[in-house]
């Protein structure tokens, strides 16, 4: 088990944990939550042995194998599949020793190493690595590309695959869903549910935590508090505790009143569609859990648009894509004020292409795209974070788009995104990904949009900011079109789904559970036998032939040994038969021949011992021979 006792952990002058206690048992799956900077990643570093405790004890079983998701990539020239296989250090050691034994024609070492390889599931390793990559969204041809050809987000997927490839007793995953789309997250959930070891997971995805973990550890006020259940259960328990604090009562009641009013208004106009009903359930659940977040540092809204048009945007017979590649055909989409649409679809199917076209970053290749006279788009995408002026502060960014506004008004607005005091005046250069995302959202919210186009807006956002964004989107009067891997956000802010797949955009009749089933069927349909599969099969057959050759080398001496034991045993049987023939003669028992009888009895006893010893050695040789022959037959 993992046992932390009276643990103190410090990074520089900042004390992260003070007298913390925690006990985790083998096989538990635990989510680690807490504010940014509370010490979650430092706790992982402690468990990996990269940090030492400043006080107290951190105890882990000494023989546990620990796997973790690295945050850097240092071997850019490796092929993707080889990079993932590198995660299994023991496998790579055996393969290296095998290569050396083959070069030296060492039959005994080859036999031993092939047995080790079989015990390490080495013959299926390449296929398992490819399966991991496929689950995380890599196409077969991408698996044979060098790591250097992938972007930062896809390199993180490779690091995740490498961590999953490594046999482990303890798996530490720090924000594994940050660079994944919904498809890959659903696959990862299933994989982690079947993981037999102990799992510790840092994540800001509440639905992901609910699906995977059975306990939550909350890092707060330098302590570790263990809650039973998933993230929702943790929220409820924390809400009950905070509700007992008198100073929180008034804010709590105001928040509840706001939520009740919103649910009443939404129910009055909601259709009977499955997603609409799912949203009502999500809102009612959110109402119950709102008190768990009364101490959130975030509180903002999207400013109301001055004018609106209806429709805001109308696309007919759209052909979307790039000059050298058509991605979507015959797209028909009309967005009106109040529309709440979530985009679903496999990775690479064209969701971002659709949003970029609507945002005017791409021009349609065909069809008609008409924009409303008063259309104001608020567009969020990951590349916009890089477009922020690194030398400018949050306040300066806002002043540039609101030159006539009083500074205090701008500071108050930025405060809702947790840019307060000196943080308003610091350059963006050293901001984290989450801080840049909050600033980008602040600039959009200030701009009074009547259409929000959001492409993975929750990447880098912590749980509190995700909840604040959810609440702000619920109050937004304009239209929303969103791509997100955060299912809680989709369930709480959208009324309908569009499915982007196989070159088309169609209405999806169903909710996210239906989509998960659709996606599973789609993956089955997309699994033809490929050249890469054939290559992997050839590799496995080659290794099996090598193993068979090594086994045949080991068979010969065993065969000779068994034959020798059989021959020696036959000789003993002949001698024993002669002795027993003489002992069967009644004359041998006459008093005059007692010395001869004594010698025959001694010889009989001696031969019987030899017979027993030889029989046992012969049987052992036969069993070993049969076992090796069985391995040879199974590998043929």
Automatic annotation (TrEMBL):
PROSITE patterns reported in the protein's UniProt record: ABC_TRANSPORTER_1, ABC_TRANSPORTER_2
Superkingdom of origin: Bacteria
Keyword Repeat found: yes
Residue stretches making up the ABC transporter domain: 2-246, 310-527
Keyword field: ATP-binding, Coiled coil, Nucleotide-binding, Repeat
Pfam families (UniProt xref): ABC_tran (PF00005), ABC_tran_Xtn (PF12848)
CDD domains per the UniProt record, alphabetical: ABCF_EF-3 (cd03221)
Coiled coil: 548-582
InterPro entries in UniProt: AAA+_ATPase, ABC_tran_Xtn, ABC_transporter-like_ATP-bd, ABC_transporter-like_CS, ABCF, P-loop_NTPase
GO molecular function, one term: ATP hydrolysis activity
Keyword Cell cycle among record annotations: no
Family the UniProt entry places it in: Belongs to the ABC transporter superfamily. ABCF family. YheS subfamily.
UniProt-recorded name of the protein: Probable ATP-binding protein YheS
Phylogenetic lineage: Bacteria, Pseudomonadati, Pseudomonadota, Gammaproteobacteria, Pseudomonadales
């Amino acid at each position: 088990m993992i046992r932390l006792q009276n643990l103190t952990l410090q990074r520089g002058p900042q004390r992260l944990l003070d007298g913390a206690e925690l006990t985790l048992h083998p096989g538990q799956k635990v989510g680690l939550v807490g504010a940014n900077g509370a010490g979650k990643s430092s706790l992982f570093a402690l468990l990996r042995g990269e940090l030492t405790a400043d006080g107290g004890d951190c105890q882990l079983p000494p023989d546990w194998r620990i796997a973790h998701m690295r945050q850097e990539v240092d071997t850019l020239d490796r092929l993707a599949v080889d990079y993932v296989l590198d995660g299994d250090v023991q496998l790579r050691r055996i393969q290296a020793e095998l290569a050396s034994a083959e070069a030296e024609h060492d039959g005994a070492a080859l036999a031993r190493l092939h047995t080790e390889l079989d015990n390490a599931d080495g013959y299926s390793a390449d296929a398992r690595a490819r399966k991991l990559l496929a689950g995380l969204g890599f196409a077969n041809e991408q698996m044979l590309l060098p790591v250097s050809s992938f972007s930062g987000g896809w390199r993180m997927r490779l690091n995740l695959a490498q961590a999953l490839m490594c046999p482990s007793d303890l798996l530490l995953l720090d924000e594994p869903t940050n660079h994944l789309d919904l498809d890959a997250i659903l696959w990862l959930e299933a994989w982690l549910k079947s993981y037999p070891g102990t799992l510790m997971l840092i994540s800001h995805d509440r639905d992901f935590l609910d699906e995977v973990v059975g306990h939550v550890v909350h890092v707060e006020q330098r302590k570790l508090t263990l809650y039973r259940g998933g993230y929702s259960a943790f929220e409820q328990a924390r809400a009950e505790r905070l509700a007992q604090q008198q100073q929180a009562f008034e804010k709590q009641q105001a928040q509840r009143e706001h939520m009740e009013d919103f649910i009443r208004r939404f129910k009055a106009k909601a259709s009977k569609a499955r997603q609409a009903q799912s949203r009502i359930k999500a809102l009612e659940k959110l109402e119950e859990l709102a008190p768990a977040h009364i101490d959130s540092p975030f509180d903002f809204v999207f400013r109301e648009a001055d004018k609106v048009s209806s429709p805001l945007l109308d696309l007919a017979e759209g052909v979307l894509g790039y000059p050298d590649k058509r991605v979507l055909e015959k797209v028909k989409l009309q967005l009106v004020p109040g529309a709440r649409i979530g985009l679903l679809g496999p990775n690479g199917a064209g969701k971002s292409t659709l949003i970029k076209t609507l945002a005017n970053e791409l021009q349609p290749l065909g069809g008609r795209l008409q924009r409303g006279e008063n259309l104001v788009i608020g567009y969020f995408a990951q590349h916009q974070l890089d477009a922020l002026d690194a030398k400018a502060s949050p306040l300066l960014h806002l002043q540039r788009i609101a030159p006539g506004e009083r500074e205090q008004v701008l500071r108050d607005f930025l405060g809702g995104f947790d840019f307060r005091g000196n943080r308003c005046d610091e350059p963006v250069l050293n901001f984290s990904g989450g801080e840049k995302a909050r600033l980008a959202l602040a600039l959009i919210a200030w701009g009074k949009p009547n259409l929000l186009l959001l492409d993975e807006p929750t990447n880098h956002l912590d749980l509190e900011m995700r909840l604040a964004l959810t609440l702000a989107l619920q109050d937004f009067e304009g239209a929303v079109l969103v791509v997100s891997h955060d299912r809680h956000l989709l369930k709480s802010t959208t009324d309908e789904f569009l499915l982007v797949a196989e070159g088309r955009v169609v209405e999806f009749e169903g909710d996210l559970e239906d989509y998960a089933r659709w996606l599973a069927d789609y993956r089955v349909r997309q699994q033809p036998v490929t050249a890469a599969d054939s290559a992997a099969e050839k590799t496995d057959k080659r290794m099996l032939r090598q193993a068979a050759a090594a086994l045949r080398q080991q068979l010969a001496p065993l065969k000779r040994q068994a034959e020798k034991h059989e021959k020696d045993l036959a000789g003993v049987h002949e001698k024993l038969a002669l002795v027993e023939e003489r002992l069967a003669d009644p004359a041998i028992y006459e008093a005059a021949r007692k010395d001869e009888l004594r010698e025959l009895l001694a010889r009989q006893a001696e031969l019987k011992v030899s017979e027993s010893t030889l029989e046992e050695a012969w049987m052992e040789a036969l069993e070993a021979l049969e076992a090796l022959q069985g391995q040879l037959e199974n590998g043929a």
